[in-house]
Amino acid sequence: MGFSKDFLWGTATASYQIEGAWNEDGKGPSIWDDLTHDREGFIEDGGTGDVACDHYHRFREDIALMAQMGIRNYRFSISWPRVLPEGTGKVNEAGLKFYSDMVDCMLENGIRPFCTLYHWDLPRAIHERGAWNNEQMVEWFSEYVTLIAKTLGDRVKDYFTINEPQCILGLGYDRVEHAPAVKMGKRDLVRMSHILLKCHGQAAKILRELVPDVHIGYAPCANPMVPCTNSQQDIDAARKAYFTVPPEGFLWNAAWFSDPAMLGKYPESALVHLEQYLPKGWEKDLALIHQPLDFYGQNIYTSNMVRAADNAYGFEMVPHRIGIERTLMGWPVVPDSLYWGAKFLYERYKTPILITENGMSCHDVVVNGHIHDEARIDYVKKYLRGLRRAAEEGTEVAGYFYWSFFDNFEWKMGYTQRFGLVHVNYDTQERTIKDSCYAYKKIMETNGENLDD
Ligand code: FCB
Question: Which residue ranges form the domains of the chain, and what is each CATH number?
Fold first, then answer.
């Protein structure tokens, strides 16, 4: 029992959070370059991704370090404006060469590359043309995806289309916490969701056509709903809450962005109140949106608690208990998140679940050259025990990618949060291996058999 023999253990990062070199070798500006440069006070500590982990210049050492620490699968993302500075049209050969060299370096180090096509660094030029709110976005995205498939497809066989549509639209255009930080109304947000889903479908289609032996996934998020007790009523209530789209906050639900992609339809609970905002003829787009996928990726960090209730919905959210353990982000530690998340998602979508991100930000301090991040080790083991339980009960779980290999630029929170298995000193760019990295190496080596130690 335990995890399957071919379980994929890995780590994840994203281009803007680690690369730096924001304007080097022909790279075009992204919405994150603009937000961090132009909006004073927006980022917690005033940080930018201008240099970040300087991975652009240090990728060979970084990938060698990954290999040394037993990482065999690495999820990275591509910066669209680095390869297409204007979003479409003129190709930046130097940018393409960077990713091509990086992939070669991974393969030389025995690391399997998992490429995320879109992890938030939208070209400024595309933003100025309306991005997700312009039907032509599907063509622009196709041009970009085709370029990547043709360049890397001979060596990269694993792709994720879009990372966290919930955050792209929810944080970028509703809560205004992420780039481009432009507030949009409900009508636009629904339309943008639909266009984003079409981009996902189109990307999957292109990859399937152009890349032999490809595996394709999607990497949405949405906090799992965890039942307050193990009673059947609470379990049913949690499942229902996970996939019921509320009139407000609809962007944060699991079903809104996943049912169309995985089942070829919008959830009924959404259509009741959102259909009026969908673009005309939306039904005929569902065939494009619903492409066969090999993995159903999911980023999971925490959960909401739910119980059965005597109201119109049949469920209600329950606050986390007072004093619950929290990460430095303030996110409640709910070890059963991966258990219930994987289980409910697999039941509904019947596609192997890949945990594309999970991890903990801590207040890590280097003491005499070491970082004793016991809390992170404990978090990873607890969460993985839940995932293992799901696997043992019949959920197909394809893998787990820890977020992140090294500390990096955490979006609005700048450099105040450290999620890495490897510490980065941003003054010197020195890397220091944390205790959790050694622990994760052991977990991978034993295929998770040491989780109870
Ligand atoms: C996820 C993002 C990732 C990282 C983690 C902590 O929402 O996909 O880039 O910021 O959270």
Answer: 8-445 (3.20.20.80)
